[in-house]
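User: structure tokens for this one?
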Amino acid sequence: MSSAPLLTAALACALLAPAAAADTPAGLPAGTRVLPDLVYARPGGIELRLDACIPPSPTPLPVVVWIHGGGWRAGDRRDNHPPLALLKAVPGLAVASIDYRLSHQARFPAQIQDCVAAVRWIRANAAANNLDPARIAVWGASAGAHLAMLLGASGGKEWDEAGGERVQAVVSWFGPADLTEAAQARAGFEGHARADSGVAQLLGGTVAEKLELARRASPITHVAKGCPPFLLMYGDRDPIVPVDHGWRMQQALAAAGAKADLEVFGGNEHGGVDFERASTMRRIGEFVLTHAR
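Assistant:
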């Protein structure tokens, strides 16, 4: 999204404002409001921001919250090609791309707390922006998918003094469902067991050293009756997150009575061409519009 001057603290804590709108990216509907650099929280003095794209609509729009990947230690909300591609492919949705504290800034559970705070901020400001506060989906890739699944499965309640925030649908692109697996150093994925791995940096120690925290941080641990619908997408040749994370998450959700669709893209790794296709974006959009209720 195009840049804009930083909002003042007062404005950033207020309702989303049309005055903050930036130019509409090519390919989005005419009249789409682009609202960049909105501060949604300041944990420990760190400003966390989101960018929102809100197409014109006669009725409040469901919103998809994009959570970027990067091993919990890299990336930011401007890794926003997927949500913009979703808007271009599927009418009737708004999107917001969020930052969260990276592992060098704070250890887990800071990251899930930030995702809860972002959803709460979007919901609190929904009425002023023609968004439907009862139809919020979360979607992420890799580490962002882990956070999306964790928020969907747990509601964020375990780590949030205000009681968490429920979302109405979850989309996971190759997200790790079980962090405890890193302790096993399974063949081909031994790197996750090292002290310099992304999961070790997230937890503040190797999974072997932080096994109980890894269990609590695993989305599959929190699956229970009442989970929202999940759409799980994995590549069958993923060298970073084994495809069986998708199978196991689907089985756990189905056993709990939750809607759980799994799509495995043959020949794709940790991402790939099939994830980026317009048909995949339409699948995601249709899933959200159908099940985020």
